[in-house]
């Protein structure tokens, strides 16, 4: 698609997000906030899957670690300090990704998928089966982190509307950040690794280090999403780290179109939208969702984000022939 | 530079300008796969301004040898020296950094990228600050210029924006070499660059090789005898993992051992 058209569409979507709360009910505003947070989560995974060619099936681990960090940092009767809780959550997720990356990045292909899953399951059981994580019930985050500095409160996450706009701002920040990273020399190396890692090595790139940096960065950004998710819903459960969650975010990336940041966000919106719709019809919504994913992979190469471009191309061809 | 001058220097084994400038030395390289010695005590030396051809029938161990020199395969025994320094333990990426570049027998490029991006990535590996994550990669003018120069040198001028995977086989082979050039390699390890090329493309590649060897050291693995005798200054013949004979083209052409072992009647 023409980059200018793509930019206009993105700005239009942003305007839509900004005005949405004036039209939607608070129920839908919260749902859109959830979609946006999962959009950040999906973008962070897309950095690995779509751009570096690393299919991680354990990405929920970093999302969950950040969420639990907020929960554990929040005292029972007081809010946590926002300026400590957010960096701590993101750093905890990034540090876990760094350590796990040291091991899993030594494997390739199907083995990589398996070991990312295995490590994520280990993290899941740490929070599920030890006193630290409060078991399968999880932990309540009774108070949302407080951003007050020296008596001045720049924003108040207790206010649903302010929280919503904070999430929108976070999405924009992560999107811009990743766009810059991908256009940098570092980003070009990642895309080169996806295309032909062996050749990158023979051209002088120590690819392991680049992959580890990407894995750590993706873990940290998944941590941003995990932080926001815990704050939005006010509790954390081991389900956040489960392999269902890892599978869901991978499906969001595939549905939206791998290797496209906006696609990852679109994928998150589509996935949650369909989930809500199917869950209204039947409790076996996963069956329908599975069908949609299979259909998307078969009939929609490049995912939802590639759809407008493909339609335009088709129209162009027909107008040429006709 | 005069074409005639190149011709003379290419065909004759007369002393080139910078003779004696030894860049890469293989010292008794041995590689075993289980009980089989794919390479046994192989010695080679590559000098600046010289093209050293490696010949041998299939299975002689030529690819094993080039893989050890490039760092794709660790040797079981022996040493590899670059400008007198032991580089035996360095990875492929580290060897590329210090000036050893290689091309592959089976075309090994980034098929979905443009020719320019293929070479730009190669050139970018020489960028001293690859970790600056807020710089625009396409704004690194040094890198872009080096990539463009390599494209021109390899004879692909005008094809910068072509998608690599859509080009002809011969052009992809040229691109493979352009990528090595973009890394500023001084030692080129070229694994059958002429494989699968038509006669016209081969002739162009031979001319390219003659130009490239002027200020670099080249190891050429190749089956095309006419091409080898047209460009090589030294020829080493391998059979069953060992060096059978090594010397100037005339010596190899007239060697009875080589003829029995390898060249056969068809080639002489």
From TrEMBL, chain A:
It is a multi-pass membrane protein. It holds the Pfam family BPD_transp_2. Keywords: Cell membrane, Membrane, Transmembrane, Transmembrane helix. This is Branched-chain amino acid ABC transporter permease. Its main location: membrane. PANTHER family: ABC TRANSPORTER ATP-BINDING PROTEIN, HIGH-AFFINITY BRANCHED-CHAIN AMINO ACID TRANSPORT SYSTEM PERMEASE. The keyword Transmembrane applies. The chain crosses the membrane at residues 6-24, 36-62, 82-105, 110-127, 163-191, 212-237, 249-274, 286-307. GO terms for molecular function: branched-chain amino acid transmembrane transporter activity. It comes from Parazoarcus communis SWub3 = DSM 12120. One of its GO terms (cellular component) is plasma membrane. It is found in: Cell membrane. It comes from the Bacteria.
From TrEMBL, chain B:
InterPro entries: AAA+_ATPase, ABC_AA/LPS_Transport, ABC_transporter-like_ATP-bd, BCA_ABC_TP_C, P-loop_NTPase. Signal peptide: none annotated. One of its GO terms (molecular function) is ATP hydrolysis activity. GO terms for cellular component: plasma membrane. Residues 24-265 form the ABC transporter domain. Keywords: ATP-binding, Cell membrane, Membrane, Nucleotide-binding, Transport. The keyword Cell inner membrane does not apply. It comes from the Bacteria. The keyword Ubl conjugation does not apply. Transmembrane segments: none annotated. SMART domains: AAA. It holds the Pfam family BCA_ABC_TP_C. This is ABC transporter ATP-binding protein. It comes from Parazoarcus communis SWub3 = DSM 12120. The lineage of its organism: Bacteria, Pseudomonadati, Pseudomonadota, Betaproteobacteria, Rhodocyclales.
